[in-house]
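New to this. Help decode the following:
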Amino acid sequence: MMMLEEVKAHLLNDIIPFWKNLRDDEFGGYYGYMDYDLKVDKRAVKGCILNSRITWFFANAYTLLKDESLLEEAKHGFAFMKEHCMDKENGGIFWSMKYDGTPEDTTKHTYNQAFSIYALSSYYEATHDEEALAMAKELFHIIETKCTDEIGYKEAFDKEFHEVENDKLSENGVIAEKTMNTLLHVFEAYTELYRVAKLPEVKERLEWIMDTFADKVYNPKLHRQEVFFDRNMNTILDLHSYGHDIETAWLMDRGVEVLGEKKYEEKMTPITKDLTAEIYKVAFDGHSLANECEKGVVNVHRIWWVQAETVIGFLNGWQKDPSRTEYLDAAKSEWQFIKDHVMDKRQGSEWFWEVDPSGKPYEGRPIVEPWKCPYHNGRMCFEVIRRLEGKEI
């Protein structure tokens, strides 16, 4: 069976049914936690990122597959976002809700606002619901007026948009005032908003973000992105995030494509090719991708989202330069590793959070939690289908 057919079957038979089964018809949205033993906690916190990503997933699944049941799921997710996740008093999206839809963590994070824009833009494409587009535009305005300074995007705020410590998007023992991760996903969200609405003010910010990536985030000497920054966008940690680099490469290429400006194609393409080549060289072992390298020490865990982004990133690298057939082989090998080891074959499950380099799962990590959702693996399926439909691969 071809990779395309296998991926499509996995999307239809495994990922979509799994997330449909987590729908909460009593309190709205989707259940926020399933433990390693496949027990759903119906009273767990519902992350707003989780619910926006699920809404995004079902909206895109409907747009691709035209199955009305998927549209109903997207509408269910949108209703939860609109009725519960949005702060009707101060504007913006909360961080998380209690199981019953009341606020649990009222932090406003730029990253979270961005994922709501991402979801709302895709939902607008699927439904032509003008209210969703209006909400996306409002969140764009909030990010640009309340979450920025003269250098870039600030990160974390309280309910009234007073700046607070960025503990949610900081890791590895540092507290970062600015992060590559937030900048990347603002870019991703704005790309989607611009694609469906062609707003000139969004285009302007996409160009600004590309300039910032090229000039401050990308490190040409080390062939990587920097990850954590101080307020002035100076790097504060020697960290190479392999998963983010391969993800950034294809997301930047997608942004260039949507933007349609030759100047930015010429500026960004050498960077995305360099990131892809370096990841292939230092992080891919022939079947799967390591997590990251901090101060010269490699974390060899195979994380679910990193493996999903590896498939897309190498497929994209091959499509951008068909002479690099090793990238196509890498995408196929990574898909085989995912099938053999990352997919949880137990009835009623989905993907493991992480496995070791030989494919053995680390027991105890949840199957669903506020970050673990169908965004990465679902998107991998969408991208493989869109990129390979009609091709003999």
Notes: The chain has one domain: 3-388. The first strand starts at residue 46 and ends at 47. The radius of gyration is 20 Å. The chain has a mean pLDDT of 97.
